[in-house]
Amino acid sequence: MTISGASKRYDTRSGTVHALDRVSLEVRDGEFLCILGPSGCGKSTLLWSMAGLHGLSSGEIRLGPSKIEAPHPEIAMIFQEANLLPWRNLESNIALPFELKRTKPDRARISRLLQRVGLAGFESKYPRELSGGMQQRASIVRGLAVDPSVLLMDEPFGALDAFTRDEMNLLIQEIWMETGKTIIFITHSIAEALFLADRIVVMSARPGRIQEIVEVDLPRPRPISVQSTPEFIARVNDIKDMIDHRKV
Ligand SMILES: Nc1ncnc2c1ncn2[C@@H]1O[C@H](COP(=O)(O)OP(=O)(O)OP(=O)(O)O)[C@@H](O)[C@H]1O
């Protein structure tokens, strides 16, 4: 995926908000890219534009030869809230993207994915009957069910408790290693970004620009315990300094 000179201004009643300023980035096929930055620096604006849910004021985003201006079948998005429809059971929530495309759900693939994330047997449950972690697992299945090549994740585990978040981080790392999808993942947590990413894009405060790109070469699969190693903690602090210095 290629982002070239992406800028976004929002015109509001109280004036213009310059959310993104000439962001250019080449996302490598199959990489796990995390985007980190202070609140309001335009992370969601960038991700929504990559999903084709937002227009840019200038610049462009491409996936291969296609310019992304509307939702694209190869790109799926997962949000902080699982966004399951409360009146549909799990199976029918997961079938929704297929209904929208007027295609038949790929039952075999869905059932493999449900098995993979530990939700086999829960197909007839309604969202209210599932924990937050289970709902987010279901939304991952819904995103992967259509077999996209790019998965966009907007702070998907931000609302979960620390233990569930660790579990989900391990799960998404495993799924990424198994499937080879390109994942672009927004987080506020430096440790989460370091744990998951091949590269971390650090963005600066408004207007959002790319401040730094950090390569993470920790061997995989990474166990949760890597986060307590002195090397990992030193790296977290380096990135924290990078972000703090910008604020001064
Ligand atoms: N629809 C909108 N209309 C007007 N301003 C908006 C709109 N969406 C976002 N903004 C503004 O654009 C800026 C960037 O917002 P965005 O949500 O992309 O940042 P973010 O880095 O994802 O923030 P957070 O980390 O808090 O989720 C913010 O100042 C926000 O208030």
TrEMBL record:
Keywords assigned: ATP-binding, Nucleotide-binding, Transport
Domain ABC transporter stretches: 1-230
PROSITE patterns found in the cross-reference section: ABC_TRANSPORTER_1, ABC_TRANSPORTER_2
Domain of life: Bacteria
Record-linked InterPro entries: AAA+_ATPase, ABC_transporter-like_ATP-bd, ABC_transporter-like_CS, ABC_transporter_ATP-bind, P-loop_NTPase
PANTHER family: ALIPHATIC SULFONATES IMPORT ATP-BINDING PROTEIN SSUB, TAURINE IMPORT ATP-BINDING PROTEIN-RELATED
CDD domains: ABC_NrtD_SsuB_transporters
GO molecular function, one term: ATP hydrolysis activity
Pfam families reported in the protein's UniProt record: ABC_tran
Family note: Belongs to the ABC transporter superfamily.
Organism: Pseudaminobacter soli
Listed name of the protein: ABC transporter ATP-binding protein
